[in-house]
Amino acid sequence: MGQITLNQVTKSFGETQVIPPLDLTIEDGEFAVFVGPSGCGKSTLLRLIAGLEDVSSGHIEIDGRDVTDVAPAKRGLAMVFQSYALYPHMSVRKNIAFPMKMAGVDQAEQDARIKKAAAALNLTDYLDRRPGQLSGGQRQRVAIGRAIVREPEAFLFDEPLSNLDAALRVGMRMEIGELHKQLATTMIYVTHDQVEAMTMADKIVVLRAGVIEQVGSPLDLYHNPRNLFVAGFIGSPTMNLISGAEAEQHGAATIGIRPEHLTVTQDGPWQGTVGVAEHLGSDTFVHVHGTGLAETITVRQAGDVPVRHGDTVRLTPDLSRMHKFGADGLRL
Amino acid sequence: MARAASNRSRFGWTILAWIIGLILFFPILWTILTSFKTEAEAIAAPPSFLFFDWTLENYGVVQERSNYMRFLWNSVIIAGGSTVLGVLIAVPAAWAMAFQPTKRTKDILLWMLSTKMLPAVGVLYPIYLICIQLGVLDNRAALVFILMLINLPIIVWMLYTYFREIPGEILEASRMDGATLKDEIVHVLTPMAVPGIASTLLLNFILAWNEAFWTLNLTAVNAAPLTAFIASYSSPEGLFFAKLSAASTMAIAPILVLGWFSQKQLVRGLTFGAVK
Q: Contact A79/B176, CB-based, under 8 Å?
């Protein structure tokens, strides 16, 4: 079991309040991702849940138990750090055993759990090596192994993949996803990478300046962003946001249209010049300037579109997929 | 071509390094050589470098005249005691400043270091008078305490620099893993900091061993370490260079041997933070 509830939680460092009063519930077994730009308070929020930082006010509950003043180790949570935070002087086996040693688990049980975790994480051949002799991906797996053997109520991941190269990141992303399916344990995952958030999460929590901008499933956020910030943050390439006369015609202060909801056509209402055309084979991203709508309008079109730098193109938006926002930035 | 040039330049630098090394080592070498000469040869002009009648006579005389072992023992107690005591006090201090820093941490560190800029002679009178008042003049425990205070800023700085290199996340991970403060220090921090603590101990032992100002001014007989042993040969009966050299050699030999065997640790301790 691992339902985590934050109740009017705040955090201040000196005079600066980094988390204004915040309420959030993460259901048992859920994969929740905290996402937002650097400095939005997502890591601080995770550290508050972990107990590595003290809340300034409010309460944190795990399965209905108030853990606000409980020491990190007693909260039943395991954390995986960005830097892996392995003990460099211990072998992989001892690293994984450390939390069990601290908890006084008997030796036979320790060995059994280490064996199981090592098999699940492909670490069996590396158990007697030191962390310094492992690659980045292997180190991260050791850190995950150390978390698994504690059999925690919930796992906390603090940007665990940001030190890995791109190819490894995709692989580890899937491994963590599969681990979540196997263990069915609550996981909270912090990242600034919205692609990670979209691909892994059951529930995404979008944060800005310590404030929750929106909570929802990845597709819910994608299709129904609550405000301009979420609209601009979720999705890659980002949504085209257009204000001014064009928006007013549609009765909004700002309209948003995702790149895939625009088409390069012969007779579209918008006209501009191609700045850069990125041909990926499966898709073509066309960045169009000089439309008078926004500095750049990005179009994503399936397949290969024969346009080049300097071409004049016309664009047709799919008006049924248009997002409208009021002057206050909220969705209309 | 490029490789030949680079080999040539490396050869040049190696020669230069050897020359500088020999210049630095020369006074010690000369002292050692002189200790094996007769008094007449020691002051002969021009001096002979290696071709003289080697003799152990000076060592015999020095050994006869003063109790070398007592001075040596005092040096060991004073240098060892002040270093161990200093590290025991500095570990928690450096720990607090490295892992629980406040706005004032940097100021405190600089203030501690600034005490090293005070000329020692400036506080000689007060400390001398305090020692008299407390009846601890020529007392080993008093010197242990005073030398500990003198070197404490350096010990704290070295350990602080060392602890700062240990990522805080590792300590946080151990806290998440259920380690108490004691477990954290015993199982995680200390094993990681052992090389740093060792080089700090070593360097400060050497500093305390060589310290002459306070040991000469605050001791007479009972607590006199090897610095006083050397000094006792420098004046009373005129200059007896050969015997003075023998005494000096005997005084520096232990620390020279210690330094030789722990070169790696010392260099690591001295350059830590600069190169990594």
A: yes
Cis before B46? omega within 30: yes
- Domains of chain A listed by start with CATH number: 4-230 (3.40.50.300), 241-325 (2.40.50.140)
CB pair distance less than 8 Å for A85 and B179: no
Query: How far apart are the C-alpha atoms of A101 and A91, rounded to whole Å?
Result: 14
Tokens of A271: 């006209």
Element (H, E) at A284: strand A283-289
pLDDT single digits (tens) A227-284: 999 999 999 889 999 998 889 999 999 999 999 999 998 888 999 999 999 999 999 9
Of B170, B172, B183, the CB nearest to A102: B183
Label the pairing between strands A312-317 and A283-289. Answer: unpaired
B68-232 CATH: 1.10.3720.10
Q: Is the ipTM of this complex over 0.90?
A: no
**Closest residue to A81, CB basis, from B169, B178, B188:** B169
- Which of the residues B103, B169, B177, B192 would you substitute to probe the A interface, choosing the one with the greatest number of A C-beta atoms within 10 Å? B177
In chain B, where the domains are located: 68-232
Provide the mean pLDDT of chain B: 86
